[in-house]
Amino acid sequence: MRMNNARELLSSRTGPKTMSFDGSAGGPTTQEIVAALAYVPHGLGHELLQAMWWPESGQRRREQLRQAVIALVAPEFTRQMHELADARTHFGIAKASMGWCGGTVTDAQRRELRRAEKALDDARAAAWPNNTMEQLGVLAGAVIAEMVGACECDRCGGRKVLPDPAGSGVVNCGDCGGSGCEPLSGRKRAGAIGADWSAYSRFWRPVYEWMLANFRAAEARAARQFSKALTMTA
Ligand SMILES: [Zn+2]
Question: Is residue 47 part of a domain?
């Protein structure tokens, strides 16, 4: 069963809307769909599958979705904060070590200061906004809405790849970044998270895109597991 069929099936819940020629409804029953869903390991993908394709069930599982989102994002945020704190510490040490207690400043100390300063700048540039955790609900809502509303990419038609102009193989589609979905504009994303465009592009874009890529991967994995389970139970 193709993954998209599995998603459509989940949306319709009671199996395909079309009746077969002999008048009986084909495809799995709601019970079989629920049983197949139980095979999908718990976690973000499981929750996204329901939030996106079975909103009634998703409504009842808001708490599980909240926990799964936190379990994904919080460790990465904490890792960045630690990296930033370490870089700040090392920069402070490098500064203090320049001519420590009246000694002469050496070339090695100057090099170390430049290195530490650059590392601090890099860590600052890579770190998500300080209030990322406070905005997590808004961010997750906007990312899920983008995933639900995603249209197929115009350029590749959702195939994610294009024929390689230089050879006989294929290359990732540049327009959609190999996701197969038309990305929302920065302005629309900014609107969805209640920020203006410049705040989105300066501060929020990295965390938004990171969440979108990870949510997509988790949902696609869950959809594969669901569709495999349906084939087994049907
Ligand atoms: Zn594309």
Answer: no
